[in-house]
Structures are given as structure tokens and as C-alpha cells.
């Protein structure tokens, strides 16, 4: 009979241990009553079990350590405290439960906000002196939570250390507690997965047996592997309950306290250790948080000079044998080192972390739009948005825009109505120079945020800067202005309206239209300045508008004020230099440009102005050196970028406002794409020379911007060689430019200039005809064609070409001067008109800048 009772007691104890591991606390209380009935000498153990069950049941239902609930916790845990105190003393020592009782009392005190009492219980339990040994599943969790709670209590202590030494000692102890808690917590979750897996596969497995931390098969996978298992909602609740709030807090807190203590490298290693631990069902959501946090730390806190690649220091294996096993008993198992990818630099690690975080966040997204899933959908989108924002920062920093585009394309599948994702996608398309697609995406963003002017402004910028659809851009700017709330920077929308009218005035061919748009532009820009007197950009564009109206005094006044607001603004310095040249102060202008180049040594626009100023001051040899330096700068900026890029199909024109040389300055000369369809048909008829080379022409890989810039540099170099009487070298430069894009009207014009130098008038005429066919609004080509007609004895044709040029740019003195329209009218016997032309030329000449004001590219920053 005694043997039968003993066997029953053993079975009950095994069931109790199983229920403790599984968190079935009500069943533990029932079995404890049975245990006391069957074996009265186990009363001390029974008190401990009831106290534990009441404590854990309460904490599962109520938040842990919430300050507003401390009073309720003290009342609700009074019974648990009484039972746990009964398990202490000599009887508890004999039963081997005193240690666990002290640890659970410490947890109870923490839940009641009694941090000092909690720390006293840890001292009584001698937590710091515990030796590593094999533990049951329940004991492993108690110990992990104990280290976490001790770290949290140290962090919450009311009194502060009296000396730096004591503070450092306390910080070290706190960090050690969180590190041990994270290691033991991960180990516990790994062991729980093994045990639960064994239970599901075999009903005969013993849950309460002692667990070996080296058990289980190592998986061969990436250091940052992602489980393909997607748990159901009930399974998710179960694994979250299994981890508990305390363990989850400890796992996230460990690296944070290291960062606060100034140990950034150690914190990074702690993140890596946790991410390298074999994944469990309970850590799948946590892994998303850790990966995102580590990526943010690497992006914000770790520079390239102090970055250390992961796992460069040798450490013990995740599975140790023999004498070394004891040192690794409380460490989580890691993925095996074979066949895993290890990042070699900061860029690879950050991108890898964010792609993993993206995959985890996307896995949890909710596709259903039903109201009952609203909260879950918002929570999942919050995680996704945070990851995509970091991914945008990282990819833009390292020039991986295509990767970002691909991620956002996938995100659209579950981002219905999410304006942030749509806007970010539009910005990424802008960065990738997919301007037409970006405009469509921004149009969707406008619908999602009807009161926000920002997507309208972005769309307006694309139209102005890249698509050459100024009227459409002006419509978007006016929409943005209507959306502006008074007092919230209305000047920027007003500024975009002014820019639109300014660009329409520049492009207008009729004087009435030009005058009307100039008036509207001036009014809009003046309003922009009135709304925000500290906006340097508004002052800059107002100065430019006065310059275009030939009111140089007002223009100089406003550009000086713009520079006072922002001295380091390169376009302002560019415009200031041109205004100085229009005021017949070229040497001062050269000084401004040289000073600006000290701040912006890679600015090709400023270098271009410098070269023309040197030519204007009859210093062609120095100008040659400057242009050669421009080629070197271009190589430094773009050659490496373009070397490995695959050829891309552009959805639109390059959108680059090219650098203009003095021979190529006109109001709308960008590329052949700016011409009308009628002009394109003339291209097919007239460009025989260029068309013959198209059979061997291959578009250069990469974005068009760098190649268009290189064309302009080659043509400027050809211009300089012409000035120093080296036409053959100029032809070589033109040939280099032709290899990039043979249909450029600027190339055709420059080739015509070489024929003029060589007095090959028929060839020059054909080249100028080709240039005008490609771009009918190229005023310099029209002027040169008119002069060529005059030399060839065709004054009527010369008159037609020069008058067309004068309509496009009436402020260009070269059109009116000798050997141009004035000479033509004299040849035709119209001396009064000839005199008027010469007088106009004399009037315009003193205020003509070395380069036209329209040569400055559009700027929005």
C-alpha cells in the first residue's frame, strides 16, 4: 500500500512539473491539493506551488509593473506572497525550493513596485553566485526572468550612486543582468520549441525531464535566417504568452542599456548574438524589432571608420563537448557556420537586416479591409512603414534606388489607401529618374491626401524639371496653393506658381504672351517673398525674374539679400556672377566664381562660368585648363557610377537643364525631345549626316544626366580650341560628343561653327539647317544660319532667320549687331531699319551677361 501511494505521488509530481512548464496554473493548484492529500510531508512544496500558481495567474491577466496598478497588485498578490513566504526557511531549504521561492518573491515585489525588496530577495537567493548547470524548462524561465527583473529594478532604483565608481559598478551589474537574461530567455524559448515539438510527435515524451542545452540538431542556414512558418492567430497568442512581457522586455532592453552606457560596439555585438540565435516561434516577431533596431543603430550611430564586420572575433561553437560544455550551458544555440552569408561591410549588413525585416513585416500584413481587422492592419502597417523608411535612407545613401523601387512595388499589394507608402514610392521613382511613373504615383498620393500640398509640389517639380510640361506643372502648383493652410509656409506653393509663369515666359515665342507671363511671374514671386521674407529661394527667383526683365539694379539687390540668407547657395552665387558680368564687372565675377569653387569644387556649372569668364578676359589657355579640369571632375563624379551599370530604358527625356555655352544659349535648348512632332519630321528629312551614324550608335548605359553633361563639356572644349586656332582638336571633341548622342542640335551647331572658321560656308549652312530642324527654337543656330545666308548672298533668307531669332530672344545684342540683322537690312537698302538695329545692339550690349541667365539650371532646394 505504501508503494502504491509513493507511485501515485511520483505521478502527481510529474504531472505538476508538466503543467508548470506549460503554464496551466489552475491545474497546478488542483494537483497540489491532491499532492498534499496523498503526502502530507510535502506541505512546504505545496505552499510554494500554490504561491507560484497564484502569482503567475495574476500576472498573465494584468500588466506587469505598471505604476498605476501597484496598489491593485499588492492586494491581488497578497495570497501568493503569503504562500511563498511559507515556502522559505529551513523546511524550504530541505525541500530544495527556497532558491526558487526567493526568486518568485522578487518577481512579486517587482510587480508591486517594491524594487528595493525585490533586490533584497535576489541577494538572499545569491543570484550572482549561481553556477551554470542543467535546468528544467520551468527553472530556466524563472532564472531568465530573475536576471531581467534584477536589471529592471537596478534601472528603476530611486537612490543614485554617490560616486562615479559606484555608478559604473551598478551599470556593469545591470548590463550583465540584461545580457544573461537575453541569453537564458533565448535558450528557454529554444528548449520550449524542442519539447513542444517532441510532444506533438510523440505522446510518450517526458516533459518534466531535465533538459540538456546541447540537445537538438543544429540547423545550417544564414546567420539571419527567416522561418517560413507562419503561425495562426491562436498560435501567435500562445507563443507570445509563452515568452511573457518580462522576457520580451529583457531581450529588447539588453542592447539599449549598452548604448546608453556608451558601449556602442558591445551593443551591436549583442544584437548580432540575438539575431544569430536559432529562431523559435516566439522570437519571430521579436526578430523583426531587433533587425530594424540594429539597422537603425548601424545607420545612425556607427560610421565607416569604427564599423567592425560581424563574427570577426573567434568564439566558441554553439555546441561544445566534454569539459567545455559547462561554460556554454546558459548560452543560446546558434546557427551553424557552414554555408551562411556573412556581411563584409556596413552597407551589406544594413541592407541584409532591412531586407530580413521587410520579409518579416510583409509576412504579418493584413490584406483584409474588414473593420474587425483595422487594429491589426494598422499595427502591421506601422511595422512595414518603419522598415521602408529605414530602407529608403540606406538605399538612397548607397545608390541602390532600384532595390528600393522593387520593395515599394511589392508593398503596393497590401498598401491600399496608405498615403505614406505611395508618397515614398513616388519619391523613389523620382530618385531613379522614372519621372513619368513618379508623376502617376504622386497623382494617386494627391487623391489619398486631398488637403496636403506636398504631393502637388512634387508633381509640379517633376513637370518643370524633368518632363518639360510647364503648364501641367503650373496647374499642380496652383492646386498646392489652394491646399495651403494660412501660416504654414504658403510661400513655397506661391514660389512654384511664380516659377511656372517664369518658365512659360522663357518659352513664349510671342511678345504679348511673354510680357503677360513675365508680369504674372513677377507678381507671384513678389507675393512669395512677402509671405516668407527669410526664404532664400524666393529671393533667388525674384532676382532671376528681374534679371530676365533686364532690371539689373533690382536683380542685384535681391540676389545680395538671398546670399545674406544663405551664403553657401551655389545657384545664388552663379546668378550673382552673371549679374556682375552684365554690369561690366567680369573680374569681380571671376573672383566670386573662384571663391564659390572653394566651397563647391565639383560644381560643373560654376566651372563652366569660370571657363567663359576666362575666355571673355582673353585668357584662352587658362580656360583650356579649366575645361580639362571639368572632364576630370566628371570622371570622378560619374565614371565609377556608370562603369558597372546595365543599360536602362528611360521612360522620358533626361530632364536635365544642360550647361549652355555661349554659342548654344537659348531659352529652351535641352535636347531633341523638347521639339514638337513637326520638328521631329524635319529631323528625319534634314539630318542625313547624323542619321547615317545611327546604325552604329548604342545608347550609353546608366542615367542620361551624366552623359548629357559630358556632351556639354566636350562642346565647350571644342569652343575653347576654336579660340586658340586649333580646329582639328575641336573636331575631335565634337566627334567624342557625337559618340554619346549624335542627334543633339548643339553638336550640329558646333560642327557648323568649325565650318565657319574654315570658311566652308555650304557645309556650315547644312549643319545650321540640321540644328534648326532638330530644335526650331535654338536662337544661336538661327542667328548663325542667318549670317551664313548673308555671306552666301541670300539676304532675304538671312532676314527671315534673324527676325525669327529676334522674336525668340529680343535681348540678345548679337542678333542686332553688325554682320547680323543690321548688316542684312543695310544690304537690302533699308537704312532706317539698319540704324535701328545697330542702336538696339548698342543699347543691349552693356547689359549682356557672359552667359544667358537662362543657362542656370532650375533649383528647388
From TrEMBL:
Record-level GO BP terms: phosphatidylinositol phosphate biosynthetic process; protein localization to plasma membrane
Listed SMART domains: TPR (SM00028)
Location of the Tetratricopeptide repeat protein 7 N-terminal domain: 1-207, 237-407
Name by which UniProt lists this protein: Tetratricopeptide repeat protein 7 N-terminal domain-containing protein
Coiled coil feature spans: none
Keywords of the record: TPR repeat
GO cellular component: plasma membrane
Species of provenance: Drosophila navojoa
Leader peptide range in chain numbering: none
Superkingdom as given in the UniProt entry: Eukaryota
InterPro entries: Endocytosis_PI4K-reg_protein (IPR051722), TPR-like_helical_dom_sf (IPR011990), TPR_rpt (IPR019734), TTC7_N (IPR045819)
Alphabetical list of Gene3D superfamilies matching this protein: Tetratricopeptide repeat domain
Known role: Involved in endocytosis.
Family: Belongs to the YPP1 family.
TPR repeat start-end pairs: 711-744, 779-812, 815-848
Amino acid at each position: 500500500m505504501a508503494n502504491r501511494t509513493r507511485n501515485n505521488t511520483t505521478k502527481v509530481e510529474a504531472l505538476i512539473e508538466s503543467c508548470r512548464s506549460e503554464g496551466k496554473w489552475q491545474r497546478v493548484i488542483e494537483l497540489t491539493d491532491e499532492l498534499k492529500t496523498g503526502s502530507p510531508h510535502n506541505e512546504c512544496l505545496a505552499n510554494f506551488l500554490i504561491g507560484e500558481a497564484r502569482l503567475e495567474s495574476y500576472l498573465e491577466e494584468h500588466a506587469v509593473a505598471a505604476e498605476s496598478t501597484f496598489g491593485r497588485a499588492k492586494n491581488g498578490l497578497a495570497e501568493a506572497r503569503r504562500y511563498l513566504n511559507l515556502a522559505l526557511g529551513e523546511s524550504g531549504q530541505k525541500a530544495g525550493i527556497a532558491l526558487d521561492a526567493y526568486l518568485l518573491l522578487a518577481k512579486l515585489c517587482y510587480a508591486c513596485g517594491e524594487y528595493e525588496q525585490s533586490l533584497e530577495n535576489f541577494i538572499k537567493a545569491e543570484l550572482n553566485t549561481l553556477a551554470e548547470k542543467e535546468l528544467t524548462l520551468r527553472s530556466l524561465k524563472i532564472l531568465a526572468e530573475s536576471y531581467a527583473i534584477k536589471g529592471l529594478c537596478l534601472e528603476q532604483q530611486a537612490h543614485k550612486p554617490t560616486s562615479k565608481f559606484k555608478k559604473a559598478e551598478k551599470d556593469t551589474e545591470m548590463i550583465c543582468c540584461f545580457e544573461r537574461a537575453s541569453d537564458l530567455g533565448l535558450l528557454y524559448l529554444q528548449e520550449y520549441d524542442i519539447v513542444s515539438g517532441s510532444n506533438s510527435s510523440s505522446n510518450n515524451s517526458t516533459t518534466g525531464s531535465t533538459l540538456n542545452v546541447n540537445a537538438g540538431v543544429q540547423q545550417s542556414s544564414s546567420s539571419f535566417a527567416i522561418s517560413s512558418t507562419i503561425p495562426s492567430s491562436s498560435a501567435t497568442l500562445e507563443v507570445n504568452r509563452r515568452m511573457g512581457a518580462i522576457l520580451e522586455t529583457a531581450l529588447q532592453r539588453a542592447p539599449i542599456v549598452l548604448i546608453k552606457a556608451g558601449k556602442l560596439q558591445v551593443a551591436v555585438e549583442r544584437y548580432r548574438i540575438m539575431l544569430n540565435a536559432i529562431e523559435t516561434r516566439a522570437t519571430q516577431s521579436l526578430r523583426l524589432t531587433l533587425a530594424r533596431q540594429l539597422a537603425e543603430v548601424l545607420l545612425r550611430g556607427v560610421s565607416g571608420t569604427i564599423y567592425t564586420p560581424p563574427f570577426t572575433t573567434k568564439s566558441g561553437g554553439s555546441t561544445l563537448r566534454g569539459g567545455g560544455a559547462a561554460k556554454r550551458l546558459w548560452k543560446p544555440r546558434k546557427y551553424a557556420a557552414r554555408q551562411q552569408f556573412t556581411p563584409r561591410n556596413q552597407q551589406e549588413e544594413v541592407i541584409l537586416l532591412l531586407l530580413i525585416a521587410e520579409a518579416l513585416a510583409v509576412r504579418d500584413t493584413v490584406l483584409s479591409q474588414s473593420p474587425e481587422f483595422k487594429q491589426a492592419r494598422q499595427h502591421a502597417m506601422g511595422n512595414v512603414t518603419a522598415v521602408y523608411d529605414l530602407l529608403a535612407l540606406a538605399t538612397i545613401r548607397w545608390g541602390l534606388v532600384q532595390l528600393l523601387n522593387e520593395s515599394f512595388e511589392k508593398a503596393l499589394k497590401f498598401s491600399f489607401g496608405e498615403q505614406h507608402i505611395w508618397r515614398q514610392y513616388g519619391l523613389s521613382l523620382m530618385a531613379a529618374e522614372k519621372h513619368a511613373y513618379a508623376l502617376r504615383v504622386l497623382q494617386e498620393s494627391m487623391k489619398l491626401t486631398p488637403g496636403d500640398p506636398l504631393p502637388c509640389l512634387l508633381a509640379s517639380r517633376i513637370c518643370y524639371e524633368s518632363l518639360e510640361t510647364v503648364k501641367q506643372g503650373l496647374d499642380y502648383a496652383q492646386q498646392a496653393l489652394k491646399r495651403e493652410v494660412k501660416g504654414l509656409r504658403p510661400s513655397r506653393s506661391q514660389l512654384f506658381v511664380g516659377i511656372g509663369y517664369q518658365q512659360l515666359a522663357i518659352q513664349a515665342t510671342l511678345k504679348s504672351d511673354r510680357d503677360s507671363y513675365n508680369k504674372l511671374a513677377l507678381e507671384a514671386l513678389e507675393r512669395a517673398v512677402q509671405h516668407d521674407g527669410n526664404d532664400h529661394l524666393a529671393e533667388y527667383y525674384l532676382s532671376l525674374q528681374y534679371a530676365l526683365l533686364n532690371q539689373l539694379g533690382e536683380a542685384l539687390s535681391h540676389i545680395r539679400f538671398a546670399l545674406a540668407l544663405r551664403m553657401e547657395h551655389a545657384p545664388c552665387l552663379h546668378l550673382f556672377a552673371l549679374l556682375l558680368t552684365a554690369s561690366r564687372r567680369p573680374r569681380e565675377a571671376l573672383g566670386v566664381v573662384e571663391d564659390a569653387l572653394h566651397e563647391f569644387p565639383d560644381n560643373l556649372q560654376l566651372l563652366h562660368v569660370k571657363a567663359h569668364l576666362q575666355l571673355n578676359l582673353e585668357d584662352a589657355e587658362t580656360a583650356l585648363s579649366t575645361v580639362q579640369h571639368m572632364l576630370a571632375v566628371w570622371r570622378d563624379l560619374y565614371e565609377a557610377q556608370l562603369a558597372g551599370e546595365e543599360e536602362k530604358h528611360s521612360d522620358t527625356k533626361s530632364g536635365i537643364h544642360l550647361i549652355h555655352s555661349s554659342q548654344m544659349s537659348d531659352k529652351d535648348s535641352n535636347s531633341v525631345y523638347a521639339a514638337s512632332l513637326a520638328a521631329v519630321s524635319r529631323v528625319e528629312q534634314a539630318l542625313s549626316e547624323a542619321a547615317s551614324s545611327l546604325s552604329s550608335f548604342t545608347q550609353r548605359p546608366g542615367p542620361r544626366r551624366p552623359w548629357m553633361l559630358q556632351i556639354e563639356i566636350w562642346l565647350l572644349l571644342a569652343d575653347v580650341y576654336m579660340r586658340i586656332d586649333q580646329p582639328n582638336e575641336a573636331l575631335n571633341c565634337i566627334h567624342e560628343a557625337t559618340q554619346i548622342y549624335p542627334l543633339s542640335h548643339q553638336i550640329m551647331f558646333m560642327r557648323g561653327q568649325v565650318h565657319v572658321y574654315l570658311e566652308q560656308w555650304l557645309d556650315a549652312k547644312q549643319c545650321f539647317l540640321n540644328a534648326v530642324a532638330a530644335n526650331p527654337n535654338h536662337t544661336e543656330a538661327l542667328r548663325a544660319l542667318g549670317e551664313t545666308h548673308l555671306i552666301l548672298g541670300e539676304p532675304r533668307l538671312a532676314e527671315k532667320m534673324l527676325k525669327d531669332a529676334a522674336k525668340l530672344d529680343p535681348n540678345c545684342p548679337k542678333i542686332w549687331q553688325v554682320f547680323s540683322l543690321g548688316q542684312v537690312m543695310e544690304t537690302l537698302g533699308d537704312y532706317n531699319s539698319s540704324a535701328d538695329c545697330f542702336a538696339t545692339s548698342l543699347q543691349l550690349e552693356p547689359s549682356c551677361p557672359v552667359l544667358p541667365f537662362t543657362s542656370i539650371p532650375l533649383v528647388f532646394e
